[in-house]
ABC transporter ATP-binding protein (Euzebyella saccharophila), 233 residues
Amino acid sequence: MIEINNLHKSYKMGSNSLHVLKGLNFSIKEGELVAIMGSSGSGKSTLLNILGMLDEADSGEYTLDGVPIKNLNETKAAKYRNKFLGFIFQSFNLINYKSAMENVALPLYYQKVPRKQREEKAIKYLSQVGLKEWAHHLPNELSGGQKQRVAIARAMAAEPKVLLADEPTGALDSKTSYEVMDLIQNINDQGNTILVVTHEEDIAHMCKRIVHLKDGVIVEDKTVDQVRASQYV
Ligand code: ADP
Ligand code: MG
């Protein structure tokens, strides 16, 4: 589903350049639930933004569902982004003056789905995240965990091939974090491919595979079972 080959990225600041991703390689199959783990500044968001076609690598290859992602104009990039990818952010990124249902329906509006269908789909996905009763509430009437569940419903509404989550539990307490990760696991059980960026080990362990990033290099890439086995020898 996702394949990257020798991916490099630097940020240029004046005459200086910061080499953030230093030749990354991995592939992710359909249906995987992968944590990209690493401490702050290790390049996790930079990587996720490239995978999410919000930014471009300086060199290397990226293939998404068989499509080489390179030199796309903004229109084409936006088209692929809508078709392939759903995003979940630490800060939820909901629109405050729109109800939960309207927030979930918004990506479908941009896909020109007719109103009635948009609303039906929004309710369907809100039900999946356990928030049907909250459809007509505004974000500020919801708890942090509920807001993130609305954001997850929104990411799913367009039925993307891959969900990309950047620190989805970063703004939540532990109990709520585990509930959100439970939901992410349930969605993965239905066959969705999901990448979760996190700096928290316990969150990473709720995925099935952990890609460990350190200073822009992959230092470990193992299934959670392999990680557990190596911890108990
Ligand atoms: P993480 O998400 O793992 O915390 P990031 O990918 O956000 O790491 O950042 C990696 C490094 O790149 C950090 O040193 C950060 O300061 C730097 N960085 C991130 N975005 C930019 C940018 N737009 N311009 C310059 N430097 C950046
Ligand atoms: Mg980050």
